[in-house]
Write a structure and sequence with these properties.
807 residues; alpha/beta; eight-stranded mixed sheet; seven-stranded mixed sheet; rod-shaped; disordered C terminus
């Protein structure tokens, strides 16, 4: 017998707890297990709402006592499954992103980040300034107009060296190639010898003529008095030179050779102004005395200086003085004529050994500054200006070649400076910088930027490859894990906000000298979001394939939004829920099917199914299956209902759907009569109780279905409608459980009465069955605001009375 109130329920629960559900010898056993009884009573009073206590004792333990544990266990399993899915999807995205990096897919975006970071640093006034020790003598348009078309006769360059010799610069580097033999080469060679120890000449390559070396008419007379530097660079696809390639074994880079000369000269001629480079070089020569260092690089015309000679003698600066030649470089092959050996023999063996050891030490230390196995990333200090533009503090000093030749520039400004000579006129060795500036930029400016980076040790540093891979894996896994747990809008917001946050991090690192990956992390997070979105679309498609034809669009959307409650490890999970089952069947279908041709039977049946299915979906129900001419619908699945109000709403929705079915059936029968088709009569049984839902089938075909005693009871009630009086216009039977939820519903306002109490097949206890009380139906029933898509009770009352009178 079903429970009606709290007192009766507690009595039944007590019998259940004492193992005596039948009630026999109840009084004699109450004292045997007071602990169990007290435990269950406390549980009921504290945790089980009164409205939920409407199940039979045989079902209470399974449905309610285990509900909390089942819910927590399933939630934990689903959470673990989601975490595993996020981890695996993150790893897959990481592999894809690393593969893209290996293929260079991120390179174009990384190049743009290089430009944007430079521009942002300039806008926020965080850019480093140009080193004041680096100056440029520009072969500009003004020089072309005054000295003629370039290339000029080489005596002009010799004249420039004569002008600069008075200023005693630390290094003079010509970013000008001298590959051809000319008549003026002797004058240039003499000027190089006169400025020994501070000259760097350019070598390079040309697509047409191959490798371009210094002409022998210059190199042989000045052998050992200058260094060669390779001016080659490798601009990226957008024309911007961002890196200096690894060195070849034949010559050092142009910048390295220039710094080599500068470091040696500054270490000897201005010990009070030693910079970082010179201090490191001197620190690497502990075996040499100060006298040897001074002898090696002083301005004395004598090849053998005494230790007492002063490198900063002001009298000696007034006259041009010869310098000793460089020792053979490890980059320079020895001359075939043995001239280098002859020059070395003019000096004592100890000093020659010191010279060579010092040069090797300098080159070894510079090799540490400029690694030969990886490129150096140029950190552009800022924009460059043309020679005619006014200079501001921090700008790169640029002077016109013609102005220097014509003594319009004070030579003293070149004292102890690194002087770069190069072409800057329009069309000469054009170059692009990350600033997109209007003023022309040329190769000499690139060398100035590289030397500036070397002097300040401000080359951009990049993460090693393995650290970049680790960063990608971390972002992919963590990003997938976080994004997986977010809704669509929050996920979109995170995907939009991440580039902003990562851009700020990249900018901060850039200011500190690190160019961290930008495109790869952003692309990785985007790929993670895309992978999750695609996976969710697959899940949505899987769910919709199961439900879209059986539920309304709104219910399908609700199912998707709460997919976590019905998915388990990526699949539809088995679940225990409380729902209302509606079972309906056509009366006399067998005889109709025998007499009606198949061409008419199927359209007739499909019209009926379509009309009834619309009624079910209008009230939030789900068509579980079609069984011949029968329909099984469920209200409260697949999303579990955990609150009594939700279970009550499902029961009301099921009865409301049955009411609409009856009303729609009248209209359908009128259409069928006009088509000379037989009218339809049906019976409906409704029961509320526990169900088991889940996916049934195999990999070829899957269906979501529900099972349990509740389905059997609803089917038995539908069959019992055949025993209703023939005059009953609405053959509807509901169980006592459904009646408890619906009989006080003001929206329905239908008079149900006890039809019979019977023992249904397969059940031990009796079941109370309720039917509409036809005698209590009156047209005076006032209509009440009905839920969405619900047929009002006034229209139903009129329909039922009409049907009753006609019958």
């Amino acid at each position: 017998m079903l429970l009606r109130n709290r007192k009766h329920y507690l009595a039944q629960l007590k019998r259940l707890a004492l193992g005596n559900p039948s009630g026999d010898r109840f009084a004699s056993q109450t004292h045997k297990q007071p602990g169990h009884w007290q435990l269950l009573t406390d549980f009921v009073h504290r945790w089980v709402p009164f409205q939920q206590l409407h199940l039979e004792p045989s079902r209470f333990n399974k449905t309610y006592f285990n509900k909390t544990h089942f819910k927590r266990r399933r939630k934990g399993e689903n959470q673990a499954a989601v975490n595993r899915l996020g981890l695996w999807s993150g790893l897959v995205v990481a592999v894809v992103s690393v593969g893209f990096s290996g293929l260079g897919a991120w390179d174009v975006l990384e190049q743009q980040s290089y430009n944007l970071l430079h521009q942002a640093r300039r806008e926020f006034d965080n850019a480093p300034v140009w080193d004041e020790r680096v100056v440029v003598i520009a072969i500009d348009q003004n020089s072309i107009e005054q000295l003629g078309r370039f290339p000029w006769p080489r005596y002009i360059h010799a004249e420039l060296l004569d002008r600069l010799q008075k200023a005693q610069p630390s290094a003079i580097a010509f970013d000008v190639l001298f590959p051809d033999i000319t008549e003026e080469d002797g004058q240039l060679a003499e000027a190089i010898v006169a400025n020994a120890n501070n000259i760097v000449l350019a070598v390079g390559s040309d697509a047409a003529s191959g490798y371009l070396n210094v002409a022998s008419s210059i190199a042989e007379p000045a052998q050992g008095f200058f260094l060669k530097g390779d001016i080659g660079n490798q601009p990226d696809s957008d024309g911007i030179s961002r890196r200096i390639p690894p060195h070849n074994e034949r010559f050092p880079s142009f910048s390295e050779a220039t710094l080599q000369v500068y470091a040696q000269n500054m270490g000897a001629t201005a010990p009070a102004q030693l910079d970082f480079l010179s201090r490191q070089i001197l620190a690497n020569e502990p075996e040499m005395t100060l006298a040897h260092r001074t002898n090696r690089l002083s301005n004395s015309p004598s090849p053998l200086n005494t230790p007492s000679s002063s490198p900063l003698n002001t009298a000696s600066k007034s006259q041009p003085q010869a310098r000793k030649p460089h020792s053979p470089s490890v980059y320079q092959p020895k001359a075939s004529d043995g001239s280098a050996q002859a020059q070395a023999q003019t000096q004592p063996q100890t000093q020659a050994r010191s010279e060579h050891d010092s040069m090797a030490s300098t080159q070894a230390w510079l090799a540490q500054l400029m690694p030969r196995d990886e490129p150096l990333w140029v950190n552009w200090p800022g924009e460059v200006k043309a020679s005619h533009q006014p200079l501001m503090d921090g700008d790169l000093p640029i002077y016109s070649y013609a102005d220097v030749i014509n003594n319009q520039i004070d030579p003293s400004i070149f004292h102890n400076k690194i002087v770069l000579v190069g072409a800057t006129y329009a069309g000469a060795d054009p170059l692009r910088t990350p600033f997109h500036q209007a003023s022309p930029v040329n190769g000499v400016h690139l060398h100035a930027a590289i030397i500036n980076n070397l002097l300040a040790q401000s080359f951009l540093r990049r993460l090693p490859v393995w650290q970049g891979i680790v960063l990608t894996v971390l972002l992919a896994t963590v990003g997938s894990h976080l994004l997986r747990h977010q809704g669509a809008y929050r996920r979109l917001a995170m995907v939009i906000c991440f580039p902003v946050a990562w851009g700020a991090i990249a900018y901060g690192a850039f200011v500190m000298g690190w160019w961290i990956p930008v495109a790869a992390p952003m692309g990785t997070v985007f790929l993670s979001a895309l992978a999750i979105q695609l996976h969710e679309q697959q899940e949505q498609q899987q769910l919709m394939e199961l439900f879209s034809m059986n539920v309304s669009a709104g219910t399908a959307d609700l199912i998707w939004r709460h997919k976590g409650a019905i998915l388990h490890r990526g699949e539809l999970a088995a679940q225990t829920l409380t729902a209302t089952v509606l079972f309906m069947d056509i009366r006399g279908f067998t005889s109709i099917a025998e007499t009606l041709p198949s061409q008419q039977l199927l359209p007739w049946l499909n019209q009926y199914f379509e009309t009834m299915t619309d009624c079910i979906m209008n009230h939030g129900g789900m068509v579980d299956k079609y069984i011949g001419d029968s329909i099984m619908a469920v209200f409260g699945a697949p999303l579990p209902r955990l609150q009594p109000d939700e279970i009550k709403a499902d029961a009301i929705a099921a009865v409301s759907a049955a009411i609409e079915m009856h009303s729609r059936l009248q209209s359908l029968n009128q259409q069928l009569r006009t088509q000379n088709l037989p009218p339809i009569e049906f019976g409906i049984g409704i029961h509320t109780g526990p169900l088991i839902g889940g996916t049934v089938g195999n990999r070829h075909r899957l269906n979501y279905s529900l099972f349990g005693d509740t389905v059997n009871v609803a089917a038995r009630l539908e069959a019992m409608t055949k025993s209703l009086p023939p005059k009953a216009p609405f053959k509807l039977l509901i169980s006592a459980d459904t009646y408890e939820y619906t009989h006080e519903c003001s929206e329905l306002n239908l008079p149900f009465e006890l039809f019979k109490s019977t023992q249904l097949r397969g059940r031990e206890s009796h079941t109370d069955v309720y039917a509409l009380a036809l005698a209590k139906l009156t047209p005076a029933v006032s209509p009440v605001a009905a839920p969405a898509a619900m047929v009002t009770t006034s229209s139903l009352t009129s329909s039922l009375l009409t049907s009753s009178l006609t019958s």
